[in-house]
Amino acid sequence: MNRAESIERNPMRYVWFTALYNARAYYPILAILFLDLGLTLDQYVLLNFVWAASIFLFEVPSGALADTLGRKNLLVTASILMIAEMSCLLLAPKDGGWLLVGLCIANRFLSGLSEATASGADEALAYDSLPETERETAWDKILATSMRYRSVGFVVAMILGGLLYDPSFINQLLPEKLHLSATLAHRLPIGLVLIQAIACLCITLRMVEPSIHHSEGISKACRNAVKLTLQTAKWVFTTPTTRMIIIIGLSIDAVVRNFATINSSYYRMIHLPEWTYGFIGAALGLLGYVVPTIAEKLNQRYSTLSNLGIISCIALIGLIGIVSANTIWCLLPAMLLMTTLGYLSFTMSRALNRATDSSKRATVLSVKGLAFNLAYGSFGLGFSLLLAANPPSPIGNNSLQNALFWQVPFFSLITTILTLRGKTILMKHGHDTNQ
């Protein structure tokens, strides 16, 4: 196979990579996985902080390094780090004291570093591998395909992870002599993800860099990365249309993603049995299979700003619908709310890839990821303070319910102001990055 033919296969390699990389069987049992190993709740909170800090520190530098050292090199590195993080969990001894804590911290740090390394580099490599004459149309199809593959993988991971973690289910399928202990069964989802990590490494090793990068020392590459990061961040936040797209996007993402992280508490509040949580996640994955098709058609018909306005309206309907929290039917607006994340992801990726030059594409996507994570963390902090304050409201005394109520006017105000501001900027500059 010659170089040109191999480059043509990069987009589908990207599709398989992103599906295997993101569909992790331990997601539905992540918290109890660490607690069952012997960690305390305080230690688990520390692990989440380590994971977030790792992504925050390396998100942008990794994107810049991808644009200087090569996207393939960063994706291979991300796969190796994924293997390392899974190995840490497999080796972590149950109730192992400081050795357990150390391996779990290493797992979370490597996990964040791996995600930061892969972020932006995967999309940039796939996008630049498409023929220039039909790149924009082809990318819409690749993006939609990748989201469908991820959705299918997410459905399988949510169901399979929960079942593999339960020794009673596994032992029903095995002869009595081969029955597994709970400790061994709890490692099965981790082992499955380790196999996926090895598959990701094989896929990335077969990728071909679409453009030739100059060979240079690591110190020079790092200096170039820092320079490119500063230049790209300046470009992102001084270009009116791009800046407004990112700000509107992060204002939606922060609120919706915050709910996605507390959804199990909401499910408990509306009296759903806990065994249903994994299947709800699987149902969301199935919905995620349909969302890219709808997002593709809407993005082809309407401008980026219009699509962001549509997403805001859908999210607002979902936010209003979950406030009452007095019936299991509140699950429907909750699911509607979380499906907006896929629509938003498609819209943001399409707009930013079209607006960005190839030489800094991975860096721009990383800047976007960093901005989104900062907004998500800030809103999460504000939401937690709102829960603690437990202010009186017209709908009851439950602190979570009160917080859900007060985020509705906040979301309505901020998105309305930003959308109107975005319309003004669009009229002033006479174009949208989507058109």
How much helicity do the residues have? Answer: over 70%
Distance between the termini: 37 Å
Any low-confidence stretches, pLDDT <50, length ≥5?
392-397
Second-tier CATH architecture of the largest domain: Up-down Bundle
H/E series, N to C? HHHHHHHHHHHHHHHHHH
* Total number of helices: 18
- Taken as a percent bin, the fraction of beta residues is under 5%
Describe the structure.
The chain contains 18 helices and no strands. It is mainly α and 435 residues long. The chain has 2 domains: 1-215, Up-down Bundle (Growth Hormone, Chain: A); 218-435, Up-down Bundle (Growth Hormone, Chain: A). Helix 13 runs parallel beside helix 15. The longest helix is centred in the middle third of the chain and has 31 residues, at 135-165. The model is unreliable at 392-397 (pLDDT under 50).
List keywords for this structure.
2 domains; Growth Hormone, Chain: A
